[in-house]
Design brief:
124 residues, alpha+beta, 3 helices, globular
């Protein structure tokens, strides 16, 4: 199976992270989180979310379902144990028009693990 994040085969890219391997950098974590959204892996998303901003629960079931169509990483800037990843993720809900999520996400590395902190969504 192709990886939803667009970086080759799932078993060789995001699959190992979803099974517990540590992300090499914030961009790898962000790509694995995109894939987790595409695959409905709420537990993984919560586990990779920083405790200071993590919601108590995450419901990924929408009606009609949201389908993720592709990911474009615009930039990845790391500074020690913090990083920023800017990306555009395309999606479609039901038979509606395709949409875009343009987000600049902040990440932090704690105990050798990258975690998602929060993101700023660019309107449009």
């Amino acid at each position: 199976m192709d990886c939803p994040c667009g970086m080759g085969r799932y078993a060789e890219h995001c699959g190992p992270l979803h099974e517990g391997a540590a992300a090499a950098d914030a961009q790898a974590l962000m790509r694995s989180r995109y894939s987790a959204y595409a695959l409905g892996l709420a537990d993984y998303l919560l586990a990779t979310w920083h405790p200071s901003t993590r919601p108590a629960a995450l419901d990924l079931h929408e009606d009609p379902p949201l389908r993720w169509l592709g990911l474009d990483v615009k930039r990845h800037v790391a500074d020690g144990d913090t990083a920023v990843v800017e990306f555009v993720a395309r999606h479609r809900q039901g038979g509606g028009c395709a949409g875009r999520l343009h987000e600049t996400s902040r990440f932090v590395r704690e105990r050798q693990l990258w975690l998602y902190v929060d993101g700023h969504v660019t309107p449009g």
